[in-house]
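Hi support team,

I submitted a single chain yesterday and got back a structure, but I'm not sure I'm reading the token output correctly. Could someone confirm the output below corresponds to the sequence I sent? I've pasted both exactly as they appear in my results page.

Thanks,
R.
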Amino acid sequence: MSDKKKPAMCPMTAWYDPGQLARTGVDVAVSTIFGKHADYRITEALVGPSQDDDVFDDDSTGVPVDEDGIHDYSQRDQIWIDYVADTGDGWDSTYSVAYHVGQPQLDLPGVDGPIPRGDVLVFGGDQVYPVANRQSYRERLVEPYEAALPETPPLTSPHAFAVPGNHDWYDSLVSFTRLFCNRRWFGGWKTRQSRSYFALKLPHRWWLVGVDVQLDSDVDIPQVKFFKRIARKMGKDDRIILCTAEPHWIFAKIYKTLDPEINENNLAFLEKKIFCNQQIATYLSGDLHHYRRHATEGGQQKITAGGGGAFLHPTHGEDVEELDGGYRLRKAFPPPNESKKLTWKNLGFLFLNPKFGVLTAFLYTLTCWAVMAPVHRFGLRQIWPAIKTSLSTSIANPIAVFWILLVFGGFLFFTDSHSKRFARVAGPIHGLAHVLCTFFVGWGATYFSARCLGLPFKRPPQLLLAGGIIFVLGWIVGSFVMGIYLAISLNWFGRHSNEAFSALACPDWKNFLRLKIDGSGKLTIFPIGIRKVARKWKPSGSTNGPTYVPNDSRATAPELIEPPIAV
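Hi R., thanks for writing in. Yes, this is the structure output for that exact sequence:
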């Protein structure tokens, strides 16, 4: 990459930046509306099997694609597969995973001998954040992986496949398709698929199936027909590794809204009806940015491994110890006690998300200016007269009522609504806390400017000074209240796991999986974790290796999250 410009090295997504929130909200709304009515997979389905076969005739990789679009690796005696999900956020986290995935081999404590790089790399969904577009894909995904593995010999290059997640669908799958469905080079990997879903025939009667569940956990009819053709080619003793972009087994436990019999297009239909004569031995998914493994006594696995680069999600909070079907929690990374400690960092919300305070500053300032109560006459010991005066002044002013309700309702609407009981209690408390803070900040600013400094009440000098004080304090106090709310909500009530940890934007505790099917047909899963990613990098000077190498003594080496899992 010496002749290429330096990568953008993007920071972690600032989810509480008001500007970022607005842009993301618009993109999500548009994609949700149009994604349901203009399904790109229908266009994909118009490409017949013969076209798929023609596309790969000149690939010269020794991996044929049959008339049904099956990528056949079954002639090999063994195969290694890397699984990475939820990539493309900050450079440090994404490149740390890419760097280790791209190494020719990894030496892991507790493993006899090095384990080689995967012959196949599977991306498990949500390849970029916050939304998909050409620039985001380039800067947040392609550049880190090109830097990690710039090139490989064409005839021995590892292959890359991907299933799209909801973030990939935010541009109706345009960027995803351009990168993964056109037989392009992806750093040193070669993309192979022609659709957003795929099937790999692996050695010793193993299969890896990648499913596209779009934005609404929906498996469309063309995709169902595709997998029906695949299922007819499977023997009754064949075993399946099923890759989806969402851990529906977790959501079913937490939200209790997943009904396996809703309609025949959903994921449960695919599992129970299409592959009914085969055993789905292992489920792999991302979407939740941590590692959690559930398993049955019989050895079936459900693994959430969304540690490819996105901000960390907690492993504590909701109760997922036992899932339907006899699955029990076996391992979590980070451990729940570490996850709980990290949550308290939300008390520093102001410093972690400095731009969020702009929102509370404006809300507090405009509300106080709308009320404009003469509370400068009351000292600290006259709190009730000050409150009564503010209430009577507000009620007589419709604009003031509007702003008060806007502050209260905005934070009420923010409340985690998946628990109605929590929403009914915590929502009003959170909204009321901001209303009270607005009152005290406004009272203090008015008292100081009008009473202490003697500036005439409601005159421009007094209004400007009080407004400036309210704006600054609203920035600080509003952010602090938000941080307290998130920390308490998650650690005491198990709610707001996504909101609390997106506020932290933690790049550490990354993970990926390395799978091996050996000559005897045994599947072994190596769950690999990186506790602390590097924050500093230096050019390697290499012409055929990674472009950058870690230059951070605090970064930790890859390690096994738990002993290898034999399936």
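A quick pointer for reading it: The first strand starts at residue 70 and ends at 72. Let us know if anything else looks off.

Best,
Support desk
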